[in-house]
Structures are given as structure tokens and as C-alpha cells.
Design goal:
Length: 170
């Protein structure tokens, strides 16, 4: 069974191999490497899924196709997957005493890292042209219509409080 990198994923197996060549067979992941090429592709798809969920939470349309942002997302996913490759070989940032004592798994930490990165980078992604259909601020406010489609009139309106102002400086 050969897995393919999903169309909504970021990065490449070659990019991951370039970051952790020591775990490859002459620069290539295959069925004889640890991890195998299929496992690396699975991680690329999973971590790209984390990225797309986080991007959607910030209102971005996924998959991201804007060139600069896509290059950035490719690099980030490839780096996280190379961290997974190292962890599977008992090395890297996920194989320290401190990390192991914290009780987290590598995928749990990557999920947190991805969400933090997207949250921190949302403004920049929008400024370089990544399509954003909404932002978290769009969900704050009031409804204009009820579930039946009837217009909602606010209970408290400004006119109800007098809406008169007095200039005390005159």
C-alpha cells in the first residue's frame, strides 16, 4: 500500500528527508528506513490537518495557496515531521528527559505549537494575501435574526436611556 500526500497537505517527503538525512537510505525514505516512507507521508498529512484546522479556526480558507504562505507552511510541516522522525529514532526535542517527564506525546506538542503559530501569524498571513473569510472577532456581537428568520429588536436601546446630553462647560 502506497500513501500519497493529500492535496490539502503541505510539505514533501523530500523536504523532510533533507532535514533528517541520517535516518534515510541515501537521502530517501523507503520501506526499509525507520520510519518508512509511508509513515512519513502519514505524519505530513496529519500535521497538515492540524495546520488546516488551526487556520480554519482563524477564519482562513484552506488549503492555503498564496505562494509565500505556502512556502512557509511547507517548511513548518516538514520541520515538525522531521521532529517526529527523530523521535521515532529516540532523538531530538521530543526525546529529552524534560519532555518525557511532562507526559505529552509529540503529536500533542505539535498540535499546541501549530495553534500558537497560526494565532501569532494570522495578521501577517492576511496582510500577504491569504484568503480569510472571517476572523474570531466576527463571531462576537449580536444576532440580527432569530432561528425563525424574524428580525430581533434589542431589549435595551439608547433612546430608552434618554439619549440626551448636556454640555457642562457652557
Amino acid at each position: 500500500m502506497t500513501l500519497d500526500i493529500a492535496v490539502n497537505s503541505y510539505g514533501s517527503i523530500e523536504g523532510v528527508a533533507g532535514m533528517c538525512a541520517i535516518w534515510t537510505d541515501m537521502g530517501v525514505f523507503n520501506g526499509n528506513t525507520h520510519p518508512t516512507d509511508e509513515q512519513v507521508v502519514t505524519w505530513i498529512n496529519q500535521i497538515s490537518g492540524f495546520m488546516n484546522v488551526a487556520l480554519n479556526n482563524e477564519g482562513f480558507v484552506t488549503p492555503v495557496v498564496q505562494a509565500d504562505a505556502k512556502l512557509t507552511l511547507d517548511a513548518i510541516v516538514e520541520q515538525y515531521v522531521s521532529d517526529m522522525v527523530q523521535a521515532s529514532n529516540s532523538s531530538g526535542r521530543f526525546f529529552t528527559e524534560r519532555f518525557l517527564a511532562a507526559g505529552l506525546t509529540p503529536l500533542m506538542q505539535i498540535y499546541k505549537d501549530v495553534n500558537a503559530w497560526v494565532s501569532d501569524s494570522a495578521g501577517g498571513l492576511e496582510k500577504i494575501g491569504v484568503v480569510r473569510k472571517s476572523s474570531p472577532a466576527d463571531t462576537i456581537g449580536t444576532r440580527g435574526f432569530d432561528k425563525g428568520g424574524n428580525a430581533i429588536t434589542p431589549i435595551f436601546q439608547r433612546r430608552g436611556f434618554g439619549n440626551t446630553f448636556q454640555d457642562f462647560d457652557t
